[in-house]
Design goal:
- The protein has about 40 residues and is mostly helical.
Length: about 40
């Protein structure tokens, strides 16, 4: 546990989102999955 804490793997509870926030995040995720990938210009 000490090693995990020093590496930053233990951050406590996940933040709670209400149903409106969850719906918004799901819509953002779906729209990003549907959009075509941009070409790597570097």
């Amino acid at each position: 546990m000490k090693v995990a804490a020093t590496k930053g793997h233990l951050r406590g509870q996940q933040p709670k989102v209400n149903r409106f926030q969850e719906a918004h995040l799901a819509a953002l995720w779906r729209s990003s999955r549907a959009s075509p990938k941009r070409p790597n210009l570097s």
